[in-house]
């Protein structure tokens, strides 16, 4: 009698492969929207970090302004930069959409549509500039002098380029008597994932 060798089959059957592909498809369908939301949420950190930089720059400027005098030697009331004026949007409203990776091209890059966007007041007074690609554009409003000084720093963006904008805002003012710069209750946001 002839012995047949015990042959084992290696690999998967067609049905096993179809089941595996089906499971992977379901996982992708469930994970896709969550991944998009997670990615957008990570991008919002840019606005939060830069609003903190603007707040810190405002605080530093206000402290320095307590020792400023006018050209004629007169004492200038402490204030935030550009009192009574609104600055921005810099680098421009909805400037990021349509650019590479839907990010604003740095203002100092060759071919930038917004050269010198950060080279004026209040940005230089605040020590603020963005020299890398970014998602948001920024505004800075200030009013009052002395203990009635206040400012609002804003970051706005359109992360999915659908013309629905997100807004992040940080406000600050001065405590009467101590002339200490105070921040609002954190950062206000509206449509943060847009």
Overview of this protein structure:
The longest helix is centred in the N-terminal third of the chain and has 30 residues, at 14-43. β2 and β3 (150-157) form a beta hairpin. The protein contains 3 helices and 6 strands. Helices cover 28% and strands 20% of the residues. The protein has one domain.
In short:
By secondary structure, the protein is α+β, with helices and mostly antiparallel strands. It has helices spanning 14-43, 45-65, 123-126; strands spanning 86-90, 136-143, 150-157, 166-175, 180-183, 188-190. Strand 3 (150-157) and strand 4 form a beta hairpin.
Q: Layout of SSEs?
A:
Layout lengths: L13 H30 L1 H21 L20 E5 L32 H4 L9 E8 L6 E8 L8 E10 L4 E4 L4 E3 L4
Provide the gyration radius in Å.
Answer: 27 Å
User: Helix proportion of residues, in percent?
Assistant: 25-40%
**Helix and strand composition category:** alpha+beta
Task: Specify the biggest β-sheet.
Answer: 6 strands, antiparallel
Q: Tell me, briefly, the overall form.
A: elongated
Helix and strand sequence? HHEHEEEEE
Q: Which regions have little confidence, pLDDT < 50, spanning 5+ residues?
A: none
Give the termini distance in whole angstroms. 77 Å
């Amino acid at each position: 009698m002839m012995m047949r060798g015990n042959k084992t089959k290696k690999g998967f059957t067609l049905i096993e492969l179809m089941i595996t592909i089906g499971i992977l498809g379901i996982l992708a369908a469930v994970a896709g929207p969550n991944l998009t939301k997670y990615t957008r949420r990570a991008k919002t950190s840019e606005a939060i970090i830069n609003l903190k930089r603007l707040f810190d720059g405002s605080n530093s400027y206000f402290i320095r302004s307590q020792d400023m005098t006018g050209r004629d030697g007169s004492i200038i009331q402490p204030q935030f930069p550009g009192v009574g004026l609104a600055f921005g949007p810099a680098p421009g409203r909805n400037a990021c959409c349509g650019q590479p990776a839907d990010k604003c091209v740095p203002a100092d890059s060759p071919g930038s549509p917004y050269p010198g966007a950060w080279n004026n007041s209040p940005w230089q007074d605040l020590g603020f500039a963005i020299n890398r690609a970014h998602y948001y554009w920024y505004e800075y409003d200030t009013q009052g002098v002395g203990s009635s000084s206040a400012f609002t720093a804003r970051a706005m963006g359109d992360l999915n380029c659908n013309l629905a904008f997100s807004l992040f805002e940080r406000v600050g003012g001065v405590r009467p008597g101590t002339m200490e710069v105070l921040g609002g209750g954190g950062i206000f946001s509206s449509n943060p994932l847009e």
